[in-house]
Amino acid sequence: MNTKSTGWLVAAAAALFAFIIFFERHLEEAPTPASMPLLGEPFRSGQTTSIQVRRTNQTIRAELRSGAWHLTLPLDYPAQPVRIEGLLSALAQLNRQFQITPGEISERPEVMTTFGLENPHSSIILEHEGTRTQILVGGTTPLADRVYLQVVGNEGVYLADASLLDLLPSSAGDWRSRRLVNLDQLAVNRIAVTNAGPTGFELLRDSGTQLWRLNWPLPARANNPKVQYLLLQLAQTRVESFVSDDPNVDLEPYGLEDPVLELVLAAEAGQVRTIQFGSSPPDRPGFIHARRSQHANIVLVPLELRGELRASYNEYRDPFLVPPMEPGRIEIERATAFSVTRTNDSWRLSGAEAVPADEALVKDLVADLKNLSVSGFVKDVVTDFAGYGLDPPALKVRLWNGSDVMGTATSPSPFVTLHFSTNREDRVFVRRTDEDSVYAIQPSALQTIPRAPWQIRDRQVWSFSTNAVRAITLTEMGRKLRLERNDAGQWTVAAGYQGSILNTAALQEALYRLGTLRAVFWTARGEEALKDYGFDETDHTVELEIQQQAGTETRTLRFGWRSGHEHPYAAAIIDGEWTVFEFPVMLYHEFVRQFLSVPQTGLSPSRSP
């Protein structure tokens, strides 16, 4: 066996002997760890203002500034709070469970070398509440599961779990913050991207509304969610590696002599952060060099961030035409104008048709208007809108807020007015009257905007009591049947007609359903529209004679073809005019076809009563 191997065995044997003599006998006698903190009371990790770790010939120091950790040695740089606070938390939990007393050490001073405390592995210096504490970290026990410690000023030796060594930084890089930029305490109100050719842009945040707007290359509304997402990406971007801290390093090899891109983040307090982006290393194409003016260092960051910043300024423009506000009034103007107004949490049509509006239809209309999104930015500055079919427009939509509607606004005016053209090459041109730009939208986006007030009125077709129905006349394909209710409330087949009533309860249920009938969709209006929906071909009519205070009133319901939704078309006279709508398909099959139709057999041919 050579001399080197022999020396190692001797050292190992000495270490094992020392561990057995001085520590093993304490294991069963150790006090409760929580009752004897190693650093004494009242040490708390959160009260530490600076921490210094020295390993071999390198010193790493961090201090707390305005609630944030910063490296001060070997360089001034933001630190990773998680790594530092993890070490502080572990130190706060150290206890005196396993200890060699100063008296025992004085009897065998050579054990300090065996424990690695003659020339410590590391030294930790803490400053907390005006107190300075130094901890010496020695070697590990023979099984390498514990490490020897000594607190300067307390000459005893203690054991701690060897995992403490993993928490000590081996270099400043272990404690350096990996954030590309720290936005926690930076209230950014300006974002500028330059040196990116035609894709450069500048965004400003309004101090009152806190909303972003595009300032360059043209004033425009900004896509606030996208701007917030960009800031989130910046906050979450982590440095892959630190390339150079030399402020005088040659920038050309990193593509930073003439940066591909420069990002400026400015805050209200005059704070400015500038980040320049250069080239990718040949061996790491997924990353790009970046240089931060604040620290004048070069780092590697993921390439995806540069792609986000090189996006066209149009991608940061607001794609929605209507602000995210709740309107109190909506005015629509095509050939004629009509409006719907919210009063006491309900909507009513205004003007000639001052009737309740359908709450669900208005809710859908408001949602559709808010979701009107731009499919293309046609032209930014327009002086003549006639060439786009917008002077005059084919459709106008105006929206007021609640205070305007209630008359409390000092100068009532719409918060947005939209002008739309007719369809042009599978697109519709649109503009906001407070802007000079022309946008394009998909024609399908206008399909839900009603063309007439009846399309948004309440979908209640009519309302009557079942017991008020005195007679029913059914007509179908030239056949006719009349049913009457006598004074006792019983239904019978009228004189002159042949047939029977098989289920009086079902007939009553059918009348109840008709008494609360609601349209699925409004379809058309006017008698001339009836021929377009097959009413003459089906020739199916239900006439209800209803007893009113002023006399008997007849309500007529006609049925036609089926719609694309498989609902039967129906027509009734509403406000003195035939109105076509889609009839609930289940109501039609379960009641109308079975109890309000004229069978081909079992009944007499059509005849006048």
Number of strands: 34
Over the alpha carbons, how many angstroms does the gyration radius reach? 42 Å
Strand order of the largest sheet: 4-3-2-1-6-7-8-9-5
SSE class: alpha+beta
| Poorly predicted residue ranges | 4-18, 25-34, 406-411, 601-609
Largest sheet: 9 strands, antiparallel
Instruction: Please report the number of helical segments.
Output: 11
Mean pLDDT: 86
Strand content range: 25-35%
Termini separation comes to: 130 Å
Sum up the overall morphology in one term. elongated
Query: Helix content range of the residues, please?
Result: 10-25%
Please characterize this protein's 3D structure.
The protein has 609 residues and is α+β, with helices and mostly antiparallel strands. The chain contains 11 helices and 34 strands. The strands form 4 sheets. It has a 9-stranded antiparallel sheet with strand order 4-3-2-1-6-7-8-9-5. It has a 9-stranded antiparallel sheet with strand order 13-12-11-10-15-16-17-18-14. Helix 9 crosses helix 11. The C terminus is likely disordered.
Key terms:
single chain, 609 residues, alpha+beta, 9-stranded antiparallel sheet, 34 strands, 17% helix, elongated
Give the topology, please.
Elements: H1 3-22, E1 48-55, E2 58-65, E3 68-73, E4 77-78, H2 81-92, E5 99-100, H3 102-107, H4 111-114, E6 122-128, E7 131-140, E8 146-151, E9 154-161, E10 188-194, E11 201-205, E12 212-216, E13 220-221, H5 224-236, E14 241-244, E15 261-267, E16 272-277, E17 287-292, E18 297-302, H6 304-309, E19 327-333, E20 337-343, E21 346-349, H7 359-370, E22 376-379, E23 395-401, H8 402-405, E24 416-423, E25 428-432, E26 438-441, E27 469-476, E28 479-485, E29 491-493, H9 504-515, E30 521-525, H10 535-538, E31 540-548, E32 551-562, E33 568-574, E34 577-582, H11 585-595
Antiparallel strand pairs: 1-2, 1-6, 2-3, 3-4, 5-9, 6-7, 7-8, 8-9, 10-11, 10-15, 11-12, 12-13, 14-18, 15-16, 16-17, 17-18, 19-20, 19-23, 20-21, 22-26, 23-24, 24-25, 25-26, 27-28, 27-31, 28-29, 30-34, 31-32, 32-33, 33-34
Helix pairs in contact: 9-11
